[in-house]
Amino acid sequence: MTGASLPMEYGLALAGILFALGLVGVLVRRNIVFILLSIEIMLNAAGLAFVVAGSHWGQPDGQVMFMLILTMAAAEVAVGLALVLQLAQRFNTLDMDAASKMRG
Amino acid sequence: MLELLWLVPALPLAGFLALALIGGRLRRGGAALNGVGSISAATLLAFFVAGTFITSPPRGRVFRQTLWTWIDVDGFTPAMGLHLDALSLTMMLVVTFVGFLIHLYAWEFMEEEEGFSRFFAYTNLFVAAMLTLVLADNLLLLYLGWEGVGLCSYLLIGFWYKDAANGAAARKAFIVTRVGDTAMAIGLFLLFTQLGTLDIRELMQRATQQWPVGSTAAVAAAWLLLGGAVGKSAQLPLQTWLPDAMAGPTPVSALIHAATMVTAGVYLIARTHVLFELAPGVQLAVAVIGTATLLIAGCSALTQWDIKRVLAYSTISQIGYMFLALGVGAWSAAIFHFMTHAFFKALLFLGAGAVILALHHEHNMFKMGGLWKQLPVTFWTFLIGSAALAALPLITSGFYSKELILLRAWNAPNGGAWLWAGGLLGALITSIYTFRMVFITFFGEAKQQAAKRPGARIHVPLVVLALLTIAGGFFGLPEFLHPALPPQPHGNESAARELALESVAAIISVLGIFIAYVLFLRNRGIADKLTATGAGSALQRYWFSGWGFDWLYDRLLVRPYVGAARANKSDIVEQIYRIITDAARACYAALSATQTGQLRWYAKAIAAGAAVVVAIMVFL
Questions:
Q1: Choice between B98 and B365, residue whose per-residue pLDDT is larger
Q2: How far is CA B608 from CA A18, B584, B591, B604, B605, in A?
């Protein structure tokens, strides 16, 4: 399995870039659908890091963690889409900044 | 029968609780029945207890009943315990019986007033506290009763609280007596730390064993207890509250500010007389305070126009006699005078109350006059009371108790002629101001018609008290008290000398009445001429204001205090705490600004936080 595969640093760098992209998406996009998309990207970046690390050490745990993250992402999407629906119904928009009633 | 002693203070307390809890729902008759009934039951019981005590005296002529241990902390174990000996028995009987008569009187006197059941609740609580005071077997329980009567005094002086002046009088009484009470509390601390107990009998034994005569601790303790006694009994220099306390209803003045509470100081000194024997200097001070007070208050009584204020100053003056007796070691004479004074001064106050009620709450004697025909029962009983106050020889109890005090003052090792002369001068002043009051109020031309005649519930107490005023001198009380209060060591006075002294006092008393007759009945012109002269009117104004003590205390204490309070209105200490609150508020404002409600802002904060954590983990 190990042999002539890519060095681990490449995989980790890819995961880091993906995570940064997702984070930037969460921070700069105002559309809630894009925010959810970006979160998915961040989750997958984390999953990728697990897989890369798992393959580096020759352990199945990394892939087990990826399965867990997939399940969690599915659950998160269910909640997130419900939030999208609520936002659309109540504010008639998808702009996340519209829901800022709870400021201190 | 003696085991029922605890019920004597418990019954008035139960009466108070009942009135306090359901008094508002009772009708007047029910409230009065409750209030008067609890006292009459306590009186009856007190008489049974007294009968048992006298017919089959307990061992050592002392009966002690410990109800329960009140506090138990590290060797400090004051009990809820009662101590009955000849002294407390006398006090208990006077408090319950005079209290009962005054309650009966108040039933009619207060009939038209608002807060009828509140009045009886307070007076019942007062009687309960007073009985606790006189029956307590330790100084802490005594102090509880002491403060209880002070509280009731405050509540009852300000009973007509809608008039702001009454509230001010009540506060004055409370605060001035509190000065003395603080001294007494410190005295209790001192006694406990030095002798390790507050049980009175134990305390007196240990004091005689451990303290030599004149030792610093004994002198300090005696001074501090004297401070408490002076405050409660309205003696120099804390006497200013009692004349203002007349703002309360007249039965209250009779019960609290004449017959019982104000003599608590006399009781305290008599009860702890061992301490005062260990501190001869303080004991002499007691005599001097008493003599000075009786003269000063007597002169003030000469100039008052409010009938109740005359009686108030006369109370201060008569308690001065009791202090004089205590100061020369004539403990039983002081308690004897306490008893006769309780009878005749309660009688005088109740009589004055009857006059005041009949004249629509008129207090000014100069607007009265000629009342002896209109209010015959009141007049005759008032006359008997006045005769006793003026110590009319042979027939009145006041004569016997006052003569005993004067005689003892003459005989006392630390007394002598000058204390006797002071007391004698006071006796002259007493009979002048007493009969000035009688002549102005009841004789001369009638200036007002009595609106209504008092009924049976006013007349019965008056007549009973008048009978006691006459009979009180023949009870043989001093001899009865000797097991509890040692008799004064006798000087080498011959019987002829004693007779001579008594005759002088008797002549002085009659002379005073004669002077009052000349000045205030036969020839009013002389008195008016005297007060019209410059010196005369100045002296009159000075005496009228109570020798300027109120003025002095106002300048010396009240105004500086009020000034300091005003200067510190913004509260300097408060500023330190304000810095803390201001800092907290600033932090709150800063933190609440971060709560923008925007999801992306929160996400940024989380990201930044994560970055910081990662940075810390990587670089540190």
A1: B98
A2: 18, 25, 16, 6, 5
User: Sign of the C-alpha dihedral, residues B435, B440, B445, B447?
Assistant: negative
Q: Tell me how far apart the alpha carbons of residues B504 and B424 are, in angstroms, rounded to a whole number.
A: 9
DSSP, res A98: G
pTM of the full predicted structure? 0.78
Spatial separation of the C-alpha atoms in residues B225 and B223, rounded to whole Å: 6
At B83, which helix (H) or strand (E)? strand B79-84
pLDDT digit string, tens, across residues B240-274: 898 888 888 999 989 988 888 999 999 999 999 88
The answer to whether B303 and B297 have CB atoms below 8 angstroms apart is no
List Cα–Cα distances, B83 to B52, B88, B139, B342, B573, in angstroms: 15, 7, 11, 22, 48
B599 touches chain A (CB under 8 A): yes
Say which amino acid occupies B345: K
B606 falls in which pLDDT band (50, 70, 90)? very high
- Both tokens of B388, joined, read 């006793």
Please tell me the predicted confidence (pLDDT) of residue A43. Answer: 94
Label residue A10 exposed, middle or buried (CB < 10 Å: 0-12, 13-18, 19+): exposed
Q: Give residues with Cβ within 8 angstroms of B427, minimum separation 6.
A: B391, B402, B406, B505, B508, B509, B512
- Chain B residues close to A84, C-beta within 8 Å: none
Chain centroid offset of residue B488 CA: 26
The reply to whether A1 touches chain B by the CB within 8 Å rule is no
Nearest of B299, B516, B515 to residue B425 by alpha carbon: B299
User: What is the widest separation between alpha-carbon atoms in chain A?
Assistant: 57
Q: Do the beta carbons of residue B176 and residue B161 sit within 8 Å?
A: no
Helices H, strands E: what count in chain B?
A: 28, 2
The closest CB to that of A27, out of B591, B593, B600, belongs to: B600
Q: How far apart are CA B270 and CA B200, in angstroms?
A: 12
Phi, psi of B306 (to 5 degrees): -85, 120
8 A C-beta contact, residue B252 and residue B157: yes
**Residue located via tokens 């009145």:** B396
Chain A contact for B589 (CB, 8 A cutoff): no
Q: How far is Cα B412 from Cα B415, in angstroms, rounded to an integer?
A: 5
What's the pLDDT tens digit per position in B452-497? 778 888 889 899 999 988 888 787 777 787 777 777 666 556 677 7
Per-residue buried b or exposed e for A67-92, using 16+ beta carbons within 10 Å of the residue's own CB: eebeeebeeebeebeebbeebeeeee
pLDDT of residue B441: 86
* Cβ-contact A33, A56 below 8 angstroms: no
How far apart are the C-alpha atoms of B221 and B217, rounded to whole Å?
6
- ipTM of predicted assembly, 2 dp: 0.85
Q: Is the Cβ–Cβ distance between B124 and B277 less than 8 Å?
A: no
Question: Cα–chain-centroid distance for residue B341?
Answer: 13
Q: Which of B593, B595, B607 sits opposite A23 (nearest CB)?
A: B607
Q: Do A104 and B592 touch (CB under 8 A)?
A: yes
- Kindly tell me if the per-residue pLDDT of B334 is higher than 60: yes
The DSSP element (H or E) to which B562 belongs, if any, is helix B559-567
Chain B residues with CB under 8 Å of A99 CB are 597, 599
Helix (H, G, I), strand (E, B) or coil at B493: coil
Q: B245 and B173 in contact (C-beta within 8 Å)?
A: yes
Asked if A96's CB is within 8 angstroms of B599's CB, the reply is: yes
- CA A30 vs CA A24, A25, B504: distances in Å: 12, 9, 113
- Look at B598 and A27 and tell me if their CB atoms are within 8 Å: no
More confident residue, B195 or A17: A17
Nearest to B137 by CA among B203, B234, B192, B76: B203
How would you write A41-76 as a 3-class SS string? Answer: HHHHHHHHHHHHHHHHHCCCHHHHHHHHHHHHHHHH
Q: Please tell me if residue A30 touches chain B, with a CB cutoff of 8 Å.
A: yes
